[in-house]
């Protein structure tokens, strides 16, 4: 949990694989004494081979990793009947990308619309469901009653909370 924010998801996976390899060698080496020296050294050759291979792994395509293809696979498969995945992802611009302990947060721009996604699932956008987010705050405020405070449970993009904050009666 301390390493992930510092080195990112991809490097954390490579580091974990390195530890698994070292653990396997640690338990294999004592039992390999009946093997010839050449076979034992061959087993140890796995370490530099793994290190070389791991150093050649290219960085993940952030746009692809943040595309959310797993979230709505049915929609993505339908789109992929007409276009390649790279073309679909290339239609939007990745404005922000960050990895943390709980997930990956991205902001994209596509067709003039911005969207905020967590682990590839869009949670807020500058169009689409934004009127709903505003109305969720405004409808209770406009009911016929006195009101001086409000609470929003679940702060996603802050649109509903911002909508409520515009009312002068809220302290």
Description:
The radius of gyration is 25 Å and the shape is elongated. It is α+β, with helices and mostly antiparallel strands. The chain is built from eight helices and four strands. Helix 1 (about 5-30) runs antiparallel to helix 3 (about 45-55). It has a four-stranded antiparallel sheet. The longest helix is centred in the first third of the chain and has 29 residues, at about 5-30. Helix content is about 50%, strand content about 15%.
Secondary structure layout plus pairing:
Blueprint: H1 3-31, H2 37-44, H3 46-55, H4 62-65, H5 73-80, H6 85-90, E1 93-99, E2 104-110, E3 113-118, E4 121-125, H7 130-141, H8 159-165
Helix pairs in contact: 1-3, 7-8
Give a short synopsis of this structure.
49% of the residues lie in helices and 15% in strands. It has 171 residues and is of the alpha+beta class.
Q: Rg, please?
A: 25 Å
- Relative strand content: 5-15%
Low-confidence stretches: none
Query: How helical, in percent, are the residues?
Result: 40-55%
Mean pLDDT: 86
Termini Cα gap:
39 Å
Structural class: alpha+beta
What's the overall geometry?
Answer: elongated
The tally of strands reads 4
Q: Given the structure, what is the number of helices?
A: 8
**Series of H and E elements:** HHHHHHEEEEHH
Summarize the biggest pleated sheet. Answer: 4 strands, antiparallel
Strand order across the largest sheet:
1-2-3-4
């Amino acid at each position: 949990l301390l390493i992930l924010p510092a080195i990112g998801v991809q490097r954390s996976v490579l580091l974990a694989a390195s530890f698994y390899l070292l653990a396997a060698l640690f338990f294999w080496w004592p039992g390999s004494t009946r093997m010839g020296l050449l076979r034992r050294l061959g087993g140890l050759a796995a370490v530099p081979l793994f290190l070389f291979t791991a150093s050649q792994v290219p960085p993940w395509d952030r746009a692809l990793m943040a595309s959310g293809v797993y979230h709505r696979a049915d929609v993505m498969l339908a789109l992929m009947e007409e276009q390649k995945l790279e073309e679909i992802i290339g239609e939007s611009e990745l404005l922000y990308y960050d990895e943390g302990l709980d997930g990956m947060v991205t902001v994209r721009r596509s067709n003039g619309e911005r969207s905020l996604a967590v682990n590839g699932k869009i949670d807020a956008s500058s169009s689409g469901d934004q009127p709903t987010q505003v109305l969720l705050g405004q409808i209770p405020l406009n009911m016929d009653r006195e009101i001086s405070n409000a609470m929003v449970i679940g702060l996603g993009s802050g649109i509903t909370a911002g909508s409520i904050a515009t009312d002068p009666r809220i302290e």
